[in-house]
Amino acid sequence: MRPEKWHPPIELSASEQSIVKRIKRAKLFTFLRQYRHELFDEEFQIELSKLYADSAKGHPPVSPAQLALTTILQAYTGASDAEAIEALVMDRRWQLVLDCMDCEKAPFSQATLVRFRSALIIQGLDRRLIERTVELAEQTKGFGSRQLRAALDSSPLGGASKVEDTYNLLGHALKKAIGVIANQQGRGLAEVANDIGLDIVAGSSLKAALDLNWDDPDQKNLAIGIVLAQ
After folding, report:
1. DSSP 21
2. How many domains does the chain have?
């Protein structure tokens, strides 16, 4: 089931205006609140909705625009997935951006956020999201585009702590698939993995098996490519 389009208010409420006035630093929160409707216009929301299967079954998915806004804030602030979910309940600046003022429960779970980011990266929409955000900042002068690009590029949506989640998701999926085959054939997982050239998922750590420099962004991108190819 694909999500309905997100149509948050454009004009700031009185309580939102009060919060904006108190934001002295981290002006990105103010920028995203003021221009989120332009960043996630109807065309881009349709593009993001294609990350979800078009099925009549299942629960209505969370708005991808809200999830994408969260990933931007994560990249800018360096918040982990768990910290982002906590911030949505405890930090009124995050609530301001995601239109969930005074919520007692986050609009989505940590697992939903991880799955969304994984799909975003796999489809190559993570870079598109960053480029759209930077371009909008430059066009509107609502935030320093150079400052924003430097922040997002130095802590990409697929950054160290976040990409690890993606690796784990893909690695676990591969290992489960091989495990099913191994059980059907009455063989060991490692034996089957070796036969079909998937030794990287047979061990206890996918990152250790890949043996790459995890401080190098190019090596991280290479790792995603390797896992997807497998």
Report:
1. H
2. 2
What pLDDT, in 10s, does the model give residues 67-92? 999 999 998 888 888 999 999 999 99
In a domain, 187, yes or no: yes
Helices assigned H by DSSP within 23-80: 28-39, 42-49, 64-77
Report residue 178 as tokens.
Answer: 């091989």
What is the extent of the structural domain holding 103? 14-154
Inter-CA distances, 42 with 33, 47, 76, Å: 17, 9, 25
Tokens linked to 84: 């982002």
119 neighbors 62 (Cβ within 8 angstroms): no
pTM (two decimals): 0.67
Contacts of 185 (CB under 8 A, 6+ apart): 192
Q: How confident is the model at residue 56 (pLDDT cuts 50, 70, 90)?
A: low
b/e string for 90-111 if b means 16 or more Cβ within 10 A?
Answer: ebbbbbbbbbbeeeeebbbebe
Is residue 195 located within the same domain as residue 166?
A: yes
Cα dihedral across residues 143, 34, 98, 44: positive or negative? negative
The answer to whether 76 and 151 have CB atoms below 8 angstroms apart is yes
